Amino acid sequence: MDAHLGLPILVGLIGVALAFDFLNGLHDAANSIATIVSTRVLRPQYAVFWAAFFNFVAFTVFGLHVAQTIGTGIIDPAIVDAQVIFAALVGAIVWNLVTWAAGIPSSSSHALIGGLVGAGIAKAGISAAVWSGLSKTILAIVLSPFVGLVLAMILVAIVSWASVRSTPFAVDRAFRILQFASASLYSLGHGGNDAQKTMGIIAVLLYSQGHLGGDFTVPFWVVLSCQTAMALGTLLGGWRIVRTMGLRITKLNPMQGFCAETGGAITLFLATFLGVPVSTTHTITGAIVGVGAARRASAVRWNVAGSIVYAWIFTIPASAIVSAATFWLVSVLRH
User: Fold this and answer.
1) Is residue 139's pLDDT more than 70?
2) For residue 129, which phi and psi values (nearest 5 degrees)?
3) Which of 40, 155, 213, 237 is the most exposed place for a label (fewest CB within 10 A)?
4) What is the pTM of this model?
């Protein structure tokens, strides 16, 4: 561990971590608001304020289990130093910017995990990885969109049965109101799971420098800083990705939007309480595909969904490669 890191460098690294958190909010704002915007329940400029508020207050609802997993369950905390954290963040930020520019809803979470793995292995070899935590995360790559899809399909079936005697106008009006609740829950789950990942990064950096004593904890100022950075990123929004998530995968009505958001929110709540750093992007995409497929399989534009899946597959290795290259470049420059 680099026990003699200067204060300016430490503050600078925390600033880079918060910049990643801001970009996470910018990149993943679409996850929170895509359905409520595409169903025209809220205009985009109002939807981002709605999402940002619930992103911010999420820390009052959830524990810090995900931050614990990121801080101690992806790579060995003993090998963490300033160079590892810097390289991990660069790998994640570069991949986020590439996919944001292309309008591809990839996972900021898995970009960060890939960055940590790439930098850790570049420093200490394959033994740097904590395989128990990594295997849990990789399993979640498969399970989170599947769970979101299944829950959304079940909700569509339940809601359709419950609404069978209502007029289309009454159903549409009711679910326009209910979508405010489902979008709030999803944004809460998004803020609870995603902001904790940056909390874990900052906390393990502070721990590696001896600023947390002998026990790994997440200081309250770190919690507030990360929630604020994510909420500010969400305020700026990611409109390219909103279009892909809310309009290109399948057309949604308010009832379907409610089912997608609720299915995604349930998945995120479960994962966050269990301490699993899942992808909010994967979760809501699975849920949106689920509501489209519940109508009919041809309602889903499978070519768009397929391109998103390819982005998922490449996210961890791509960010890991950028991170490892950054680590080696910094090593060369330092010597």
Assistant:
1) yes
2) -75, 140
3) 213
4) 0.81
